[in-house]
Amino acid sequence: MSIRLNNLTLAYERHPAVHHLTATIAQGDWLAIVGPNGAGKSTLLNAMAGLTAINEGSIEGLCPNTVAYLPQQAQLDNSFPLTVFELVVMGLWAKLGFSKSLSGLQHKQCVDAIAVVGLQGFEHRMINTLSGGQLQRCLFARVLLQDQPVILLDEPFNAIDLKTLTDLTQVIKRWHQNNRTVIMVTHDLDYVQKHCPQTLLLSRECIGHGTTKDILTTGNLKKARQLSEAFDERAHLCMQGAA
Ligand SMILES: Nc1ncnc2c1ncn2[C@@H]1O[C@H](COP(=O)(O)OP(=O)(O)OP(=O)(O)O)[C@@H](O)[C@H]1O
């Protein structure tokens, strides 16, 4: 099922972070959302995850139980007393709920997911003892278990080494081959050019959406930067399109 963003506006206290965005993301797309700092990328991803209220317009084709969301590491409280295994098991939350214990198959799925991301042997480690890259692998394992058709990744490769980036890219490639929709926020334009077939360039409004090579042009990137620099943080919510 495709995802449709219809004239979408997202705002904090009426200050727009995403402005009148219209786009269709086809099922099975691997889409990068790029743009300058403050362009509204994380806000848009949060709205797709159902975590941010919509001020105007709509998002169609998504509901919370079809989405797996990997937030920025900075948003996580890794001091919580959890082991790697316990964090990964949380990917089965929708199936397990509060009281149910793991079946043999579910236990195996957790062990397999931990192996896929290369964390065998770390099952009983507390998450606050993991490096940034190991924690990111752990979070990818949780997303693997969530097993959803739409996967939202917010800066998944921030501050991780080349080996981890390569391994986790293989995980994403498998999702893409399985016709899952992968939407990732990133600042790494080299990565996007190399791997992501589709790009949405955002600077609060949409600068361009389409094939990566058509969108990541010098002209579009310059326009995004100029719009971002010219933006007045105190501007009120635009009433364009309002009745
Ligand atoms: N919780 C919030 N309350 C008020 N304003 C917010 C909040 N979160 C984000 N904003 C503002 O919304 C705008 C868009 O922020 P957002 O985090 O979506 O941008 P971004 O493109 O992801 O930025 P970056 O590349 O720096 O991570 C920014 O001006 C930011 O200050």
From TrEMBL:
Coiled coil: none
Keyword DNA repair part of the UniProt annotation: no
Keyword Cell wall biogenesis/degradation tagged: no
Database matches in InterPro entries: AAA+_ATPase (IPR003593), ABC_transporter-like_ATP-bd (IPR003439), Metal_Ion_Import_ABC (IPR050153), P-loop_NTPase (IPR027417)
Origin: domain of life: Bacteria
Pfam family membership, one: ABC_tran
SMART domains named in the record: AAA
Keywords, ordered alphabetically: ATP-binding, Nucleotide-binding, Transport
Molecular function in Gene Ontology: ATP binding; ATP hydrolysis activity
Residue stretches making up the ABC transporter domain: 3-229
Protein family membership: Belongs to the ABC transporter superfamily.
Descriptive protein name: ABC transporter ATP-binding protein
Organism, scientific name: Paraglaciecola psychrophila 170
